[in-house]
Design a protein that fits this description.
By secondary structure, the protein is an alpha+beta fold. It is built from one helix and three strands, in the order αβββ.
Length: 80
């Protein structure tokens, strides 16, 4: 009986594999910050299908706030 249980557990461990994380979606909010959705992908050897699992969302601030920086001043070119 122990061999049967061990065999079933071994097959179950081999049947699925995980990869990732991968980026599923990127959005920009009104302040110019990024919202990144990341998921793990799971492959099922039993069904041959892929599914997304363990999805997380991260907020990435692109600037510290306040007014935007002034554009760089152009460098004058010497006249010939």
């Amino acid at each position: 009986m122990l061999r049967v249980v061990a065999s079933v557990l071994a097959l179950a461990a081999v049947a699925c594999s995980h990869a990732g994380p991968y980026v599923q979606n990127i959005r920009v909010d009104m302040d110019g910050n990024l919202t990144v959705d990341k998921c793990l992908i799971e492959y099922s050897g039993w069904t041959g299908g892929l599914s997304s699992t363990d999805c997380t969302t991260e907020q990435v601030k692109l600037h510290a706030g306040g007014p935007p920086a002034a554009p760089p001043t152009p460098i004058p070119t010497p006249k010939s």
